């Protein structure tokens, strides 16, 4: 069953209807503030392809809506912000030769490779794994609950994090920390994430969303032009290097990787709750 489109009425200061959503909720907790909640708590807020397409359209709408100045992005429940892509659906997709393998230009959750105009503050209410971590890495500010963890487990599934995470992690964390994460698939604790400069604050579940919204209000109270220009100017060096690196990863590796025996095996093992039986490398 599709989720309701919003948790409260659309205010009269919103000029155009936002895109239809089946997997996320939209609300407006204060003037100028957009709140987006992934609403698949029974699935650890993992996203099927359709949800990523919806969110990609939503972020574009957010950038174009004149009175919106800052967004807050979170997940429903208290276990996961987003556990990544729906791996069971992904296995079906890569076995169907007639279905495209690529996400929209904004990347996973419409966010992992998004430049956009306006800031997105994340209230990370639990695990941010796989694509969820890829989206987090491209957020502007992150608040996290004490149970939040961060992980790129793709090497355990026979795939790779090619939606923007690898070059972004390299710039954010440096070579050795990045290799530690991506070559082992290990979990990064929220305490480590703070010490690495990823998470701004650890906030209790009860106060997490309130803290993120209040922070967004602070941004929204400032010059919207200055916020947009300052954000884009600061990200210019980031985007120039990262986007090209991401595109090369997708151009050189993504399709062949997803068509490989090891991708099918890793995802099948996940579905069947068994250890994967890896094949010889195809590279």
Provide the structure class: alpha/beta
* Overall 3D form: globular
Write down the secondary-structure element order.
Answer: EEHEEHEEHEEHHEHEHHH
Query: Cα-atom Rg, whole angstroms?
Result: 18 Å
Q: Kindly report how far apart the N and C termini lie.
A: 42 Å
Note poorly predicted spans: 1-7
Fraction of residues in H or I helices:
40-55%
Percent of residues in β-strands: 5-15%
The overall number of domains is: 1
Characterize the main sheet.
6 strands, mixed
Average pLDDT, rounded to a whole number, is 88
CATH architecture: Alpha-Beta Complex
Pathway: Mycotoxin biosynthesis
Keywords: Lyase, Virulence
Protein name: Carnitinyl-CoA dehydratase
InterPro entries: ClpP/crotonase-like_dom_sf (IPR029045), Enoyl-CoA_hydra/iso (IPR001753), Enoyl-CoA_hydra_C (IPR014748)
SSE topology:
Blueprint: E1 24-30, E2 33-38, H1 49-64, E3 70-75, E4 80-82, H2 87-95, E5 120-124, E6 127-129, H3 131-137, E7 141-144, E8 149-151, H4 165-173, H5 175-182, E9 187-189, H6 190-195, E10 201-202, H7 205-220, H8 224-258, H9 261-272
Helix pairs in contact: 2-9, 3-4, 4-5, 4-8
Summarize the structure.
This protein is an alpha/beta fold and 283 residues long. It has one domain (24-272): 2-enoyl-CoA Hydratase, Chain A, domain 1, CATH 3.90.226.10.
């Amino acid at each position: 069953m599709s989720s309701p489109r919003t948790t409260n009425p659309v205010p009269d200061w919103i000029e155009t209807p936002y895109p239809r959503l089946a997997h996320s909720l939209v609300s407006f907790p204060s003037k100028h503030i957009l709140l987006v909640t992934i609403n698949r708590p029974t699935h650890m807020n993992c996203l099927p392809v359709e949800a990523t397409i919806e969110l990609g359209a939503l972020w574009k709408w957010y950038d174009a809506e004149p009175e919106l100045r800052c967004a807050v992005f979170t997940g429903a429940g208290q276990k996961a912000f987003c556990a990544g892509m729906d791996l069971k659906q992904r296995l079906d997709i890569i076995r169907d030769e007639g279905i495209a393998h690529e996400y929209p230009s904004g990347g996973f959750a419409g966010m992992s490779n998004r430049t956009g105009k306006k800031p997105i503050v994340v209230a990370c209410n639990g695990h941010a794994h796989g694509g969820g971590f890829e989206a987090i890495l491209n957020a502007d500010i992150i608040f996290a609950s004490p149970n939040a963890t961060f992980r790129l487990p793709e090497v355990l599934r026979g795939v790779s994090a090619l939606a923007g995470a690898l070059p972004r992690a390299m710039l954010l964390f440096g070579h050795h920390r990045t290799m530690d994460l991506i070559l082992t698939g290990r979990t990064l604790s929220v305490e480590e994430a703070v010490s690495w400069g990823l998470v701004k604050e650890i906030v209790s579940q009860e106060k997490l969303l309130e803290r993120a919204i209040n922070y967004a209000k602070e941004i929204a109270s400032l010059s919207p032009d200055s916020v947009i220009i300052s954000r884009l100017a600061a990200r210019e060096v980031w985007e120039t290097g990262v986007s090209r690196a991401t595109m090369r990863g997708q151009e050189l590796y993504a399709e062949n990787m997803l068509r490989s025996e090891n991708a099918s095996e890793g995802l099948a093992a996940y579905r069947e709750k068994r250890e994967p039986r890896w094949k010889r490398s195809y590279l």
